[in-house]
Every structure is written in C-alpha cells, then in structure tokens.
Amino acid sequence: MPNNYFKFKRFTVFQDGAAMKVGTDGVLLGAWFTLDGTENRVLDVGTGTGLIALMAAQRSPRALVDAVEIDRDAARQARQNVEISPWKERIAVFPASLQEYAARTPCRYDRIVSNPPYFLSSLKPDDGGRLAARHADALPYEDLIRGATALLKPGGTFAAIFPYREASVFTVQAAVAGLYCVRRLNVYPVPGGPVKRVLLEFSFDRGPVDERTLVIGAPESGGYTDDYRRLTADFYLYF
Questions:
Q1: Is the Cα torsion angle 56, 115, 26, 70 positive or negative in sign?
Q2: What's the rounded Cα separation, in Å, for the pair 137 and 88?
Q3: What is the rounded distance in angstroms from the CA atom of residue 107 to the CA atom of residue 203?
Q4: Which end of the chain is more exposed for a tag (fewer CB within 10 A), N or C?
Q5: Complete domains list, the chain, with CATH
Q6: Rounded-to-integer distance, Cα 209 and Cα 39, Å
Q7: Cα angle for residues 29, 34, 38 (degrees, 5° grid)
Q8: pTM of this prediction?
C-alpha cells in the first residue's frame, strides 16, 4: 500500500484522497516544463494531488498558479496540500473539468501544463478513479488542445507528458490546431531500453524542435543518472 503522503524538500503531498498518487511522470514534467520567472500566470490541468501546481509555485516565485481537477476528492486534497504549503497565497484549485473552466474563466496563461489522462486504447483498470485519471475519456485530446489554445497567451507555452505512441498522435493533432512542438524529451527508464515517456512542449510559433533524451536509472550503480538527479534535485529529498 502506498504511503498517504510524499515529502519533498519544500512541501508535502498527501495523496490518500486522490486516485493517482505521486509518481515519476508528474515530478519529471513539473521539473522540466519551461518556467523562467517572467510568467505571471500558470495553469495546471488535471492537478490531482496538486503536485505540479506546487512545483510551479516553487520554481516561479512571482507567478499565480491555477489548478483544475475534475475529481472532487482529488481537488479537495489538492486544496489541503496547497494550504499547508509555503505558497497558499499564490495557488488556487478549481474543482472543474478543463472544458467547464475554459468556458467560464477570463484568465489567459503564460504557461499551461498537464499530466493528462493519456491512454487511448490500452486495457482499462477496474477502479473508476484510476480510469478517469489514466484514460482520455473524460478529457479527449481534442478537448485538451482546444482548452490550451483558448487559454494560452501569445508567446506562451503548453507542456504535457505521454507514452511514446500517444506522443506522436497528440503532436499531429496539436499541429492541426496551430500548436507546434518546440521541445521534446524522450525518457528512457534504463540505458538501452525503449522510450517509455515523452515530454512535449508546444507554442503558437512554429520553429525547430529542441529534442533531447533523458535516462533515469543507472543500473551499474544501482541508482540514478546525474542528468535525472540534476533535473529533480530541487524537489526530491534524497538528491
């Protein structure tokens, strides 16, 4: 049974009320997506426990961070995690779907980030919460893209993480809607293995793609690679 909390260097995430627990995907995306300190507003879509919203607030000290979450229990827990964090004055959690939120908010964002429900056709889990959190039924790719294009400021960026096959599908659909991939990180769990996750960042401005790779594990030492440690060092207690 997973712990009911996950402690980072500057905040703690309680997770007993959320279907999806803290995992490598969220930490990778929260540490990787573009934040340079100039952004005024950040949106985390499908915040779950509030992990990426909290990471964004830590990384961008002046930004106001909004987080939307369709699951009411998860949204309640995200609010609780925000309240015990150092950045409770800068983070707001909204219990709503992206579709609902985009239809009513007047806000536009410098950065939008999402660890989305991404599986299109794989075997679905029995647990209803995990189903919504992992599969793209509640937030189809076209709705995520439509929401991002509606809420993103000119010059802003939208970032998300996907399995390898789904990353290609999403990139094509985003380009059709006028969002172009400008950064891509191919993530390998161990050297020589297949790509398991792809982090993508999009802009309204078409340009060359900054494509890189990241290997997480270092089997020869039984630990993690220096690249992975550098990327996540501001967050994990043991790095």
A1: positive
A2: 31
A3: 18
A4: N
A5: 5-232 (3.40.50.150)
A6: 22
A7: 140
A8: 0.91
Digit-coded pLDDT (tens) for 156-170: 999 999 999 999 999
pLDDT per position as a tens digit, 85-143: 999 999 999 999 999 999 999 999 999 999 987 655 544 444 444 444 444 466 899 99
**Alpha carbon distance, N-terminus to C-terminus of the chain:** 24
- Using N-to-C axis directions, what is the helix angle for 141-151 and 164-176, rounded to 10°? 50
Closest by CA position to 162, among listed 173, 154, 153, 178: 173
| Mean pLDDT across 47-54 | 97
Could you tell me if 113 and 160 are in contact, meaning their C-beta atoms sit under 8 angstroms apart? yes
Burial 62-92 (b: 16+ CB within 10 A, else e): ebbbbbbbbbeebbebbbbbbeebebeebbe
d(C-alpha 114, C-alpha 93), whole Å: 14
Q: d(Cα 104, Cα 36) in Å, to the nearest integer?
A: 28
